[in-house]
Amino acid sequence: MRSRLKLFTGDNEFSEITQPQVSIPLGEILQAISEAVVNDRTWLSDFREDEVKVSADLYDIISASIHLRPSA
What we know:
Blueprint: E1 6-8, E2 14-16, H1 26-38, H2 43-46, H3 56-67
Antiparallel strand pairs: 1-2
């Protein structure tokens, strides 16, 4: 897991520096990741431990599909 930088503000509390967020359609992400998997791009391993935020309904679908057995 990547270490997070802490910003010292002068008091005894530290706050995390957050990276900017960008919103893009899921289709663009899927296209880029699919191409990277097919072509065995090394950058995939750089982001393997990163967390992403998804909607609750997409999470439910992904979770269900992981637990389904492939059809014969």
